[in-house]
Design brief:
Layout (H helix, E strand, L loop, with lengths): L6 H11 L3 H32 L6
Helix pairs in contact: 1-2
Length: 58
């Protein structure tokens, strides 16, 4: 999960390095979408761990 979240920094830096306002705004939009999908994927992963009982929360 931590390694996949590093992709967001690459997209933002690529948009910033293009030296264009519109490319940077597109990069921010793309990174926001990536973060939103990562949150949903994290919740799915957490539910699977809780159902299987392999994660002790007490």
């Amino acid at each position: 999960m931590a390694i996949t979240s590093i992709e967001v920094y690459g997209v933002i830096i690529a948009g910033w390095a293009s030296n264009s306002k519109y490319a940077f705004l597109g990069a921010l939009r793309a990174s926001a979408q990536m973060v939103s999908y990562e949150i949903a994927m994290g919740f799915c992963f957490l539910v699977v761990l809780m159902v299987s009982g392999s994660m002790n929360l007490t």
